Amino acid sequence: MSDLLERGRFLLPAVLLAALPFYLDAFWLRIGLFSMAAAIGAVGLGLLSGTAGQLSLGHAFFLAVGAYGYVWLAGDSGPGLPPAVALVLAVLLAGAAGGLFSPVAGRVKGVYLGVATLALVFLGHHVLLTADSVTGGFNGSSVPPLEIGSFAFDQGDDLTVLGVPFGAEERIWYLGLALFALTWFTARGLLRGRPGRALVALRDSETAAAVMGVHVARYRSAAFVVSSMYAGLAGVLLALSFRRVVPDYFSLALSVDYLAMIVIGGLGSVAGATAGAVFVTALPLLMTRYADQLPLVAAPGSGDGSIGPTEAARYLYGAAIVVILVFAPDGLTGLARRARARIARPRPPGPAPSDPGAAPRPPATAVRAKEHTP
């Protein structure tokens, strides 16, 4: 029975997500695509910062490596590899970039590691602006569509499924679902296995972990490489969803957004990273669409001096971070866990509410006093 319930927990959401392209328009599908890409990157950062306890402010750099790596490898300016091969190589390229930085990650920790990764963002942004032949410079580059065999994930040929025209958003939606499912199950398997226990031991106490036989530097470096590969995969999916990459997107603000995702969702939790990614990603997009219906929020380009939807969204999830840290340090997953425990907690026995003639139950103090009366 428990196996059926466990399968149902994943099967029902999977069926629901697979059916959404038949009912939602392109705007909502784009929100879903951006959220799935953000969730993949947030899961990787959650493994690094939430499970291994390593602060990283350079996540945007590894997303840029994945996005621009795919564009260059599959584009005309690069070797022009098949897009599916370019996707895999872009993820490996992001992991290699994390591997080059891993000696620093293996020896530096805390705020010093955060400052070191912060340097990656500024260095990467400078390279993206100046390496025009590879990145396209300030204006960026168009993204080659992904093709697997004869099937292209773009607006190419007319494709209709059950009477619904399938454009680029609908096609990439299922690619995003497949990549997110791969991320979800590999990350959960990693956390539940020996590597996950070793990373948790490192986070709690490096001395105790070393005594138990955990190679501290090796596991810290491995966590950085795995997190970078997840970030590279997220960068590729973002590039395919945007269809154009520009250097200004991969800035420090993006790294801060990813930190907000894992803090709001709950550190060290795959489900929490996913929930935080959806919240942080969807909020500014929704506020932009409904800006004319929200108080104190100006529509983009109105120029009336009010707060723009992007700034308002940052204020809101900044306030959400403060509330989470004060009242629920374990994030949304902790709140959900406590809510489930409270619902499942059995009620103490007592008279049925429908029995008006039932005698009232004496208080516990009266029962104890009666027991001690000589």
Automatic annotation (TrEMBL):
Membrane topology designation: Multi-pass membrane protein
Residue ranges of the region described as Disordered: 342-374
Superkingdom to which the source organism belongs: Bacteria
UniProt keywords, alphabetically: Cell membrane, Membrane, Transmembrane, Transmembrane helix
Transmembrane domains' residue ranges: 27-48, 55-73, 85-104, 111-129, 172-191, 223-246, 258-286, 315-336
Coiled coil: none
Compartmental location: Cell membrane
Pro residues bias: start-end ranges: 346-363
Protein name: Branched-chain amino acid transport system permease protein
